[in-house]
Please model this.
Amino acid sequence: MSQPDLNLDQKDIGFMQRLKEHPELQERFEVLLAVIENADGDSLTADAAEQRVVEELRQMGHSALQAWAERKHQRVEVAYERRSDVRRKEKKSSTGRRASGR
Model:
């Protein structure tokens, strides 16, 4: 069986490389495409197909926002670590004031 000629341009290749960095989104795209192509062959009604597409898009949005939040958190941490005027809070090793011995 021969491989089809995909004729990918740089934009397509760039998108696929970026998508590989987010496997959870890649999985959502694959499920969405399966619904669109009716890959299961279950001949959904229009209402059932719409419901599956909406659910997949909702989950894709959730995954996208989760990935965005994680990346944002990492960038903020790095920015704070680079600043010299910001110190991390550290747990105190002292248990209080020292006894005066009176």
User: Anything to note?
Assistant: The CA atoms of residues 32 and 57 lie 8 Å apart.
